[in-house]
Amino acid sequence: MKGQVTEDTVVEVAANAVWEVYGSLEFVRLVNQLLSNVIGTVEVVEGDGSAGTILKVTFPPGSAVGVGCNYLKERVTKIDDEKRIRVTEIIEGGFKDVGFDVYRVRSEMREKDDKSSIIRSTIEYEINGDKLADVASQLTTKPIELMAETIGKYLSQIKKD
Q: What is the superkingdom listed in this entry's lineage (predicted)?
């Protein structure tokens, strides 16, 4: 079974400013600074933020984000500066441990107007077996939506200061 779930998050900052975060390791720094109690801590296992970089996310104790696992590793598979697209794929732990063959997150920054943008977050997945259809039906964009909202608010605030 293949599927996808998409969520658009409007933020009050230009798409280029948001991309400066999402397209670099600044994303890791901000998630650790702003969301470590909810999302967890992110560490760079290898790489410089470009395609091929491997990140390890360790979930906070009792977190619903970890779907019964305490960590995941993901590989950045695409960074497109021109189109402002970042794609990561889980390679170990997390959703792989509960039966997903593929779990990919695509983040795209789109201009809304000169002062705001849309962060389109898409989860693409593949999962085998009818029993696992229930697991797939419970997928949510809430964690990546929370990251988009929080980073957008942070960037909007520092723009005002």
A: Eukaryota
